[in-house]
């Protein structure tokens, strides 16, 4: 896996990234750090990737378990250390899983399997952050 990150130039702190799969992603800094707030911050992108990784796992595990899953949203609320390096110290993942007759135990199991076994991003984050999860099931 490879990505290339390039600074957009001396007028600010914006960057562009090209992923190995050919996609472009913009990132920018906060105004107080020289950015213009035109795109997500790099650390927000770390959370985005982590949320995407675990949501992907949860949906895949439920589908493989023949659950009738129709939607999956995950909201990550994170805290960072106050001093450098400002690593994530706490992250809560709140899942809202929508489907027909979803079993509570199946959703709980999918989340635990993702966080304990399959989601590389969450497992890396757990090296510095306390990870908590919660979920709710919405009937489709």
From TrEMBL:
Xref: Pfam families: OsmC
Gene3D superfamilies xrefs: 3.30.300.20
NCBIfam families per UniProt: PRK10738.1
PANTHER family: PROTEIN YHFA
Annotated protein name in UniProt: OsmC family protein
Species per Swiss-Prot/TrEMBL record: Zemynaea arenosa
């Amino acid at each position: 896996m490879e990505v290339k990150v390039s600074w957009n130039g001396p007028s600010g702190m914006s960057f562009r990234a090209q992923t190995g799969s050919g996609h472009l992603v913009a990132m920018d800094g906060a105004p107080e750090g020289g950015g213009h707030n035109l795109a997500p911050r790099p650390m927000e992108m770390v959370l985005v990737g982590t949320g995407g990784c675990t949501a992907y796992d949860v949906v895949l595990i439920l589908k493989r378990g023949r659950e009738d899953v129709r939607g999956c949203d995950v909201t990550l609320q994170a805290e960072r250390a106050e001093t450098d390096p400002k690593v994530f110290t706490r992250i809560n993942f709140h899942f809202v899983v929508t489907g027909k007759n979803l079993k509570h135990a199946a959703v709980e199991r999918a989340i635990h399997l993702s966080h304990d076994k399959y989601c590389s991003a969450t497992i890396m984050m757990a090296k510095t952050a306390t990870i908590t999860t919660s979920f709710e099931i919405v009937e489709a």
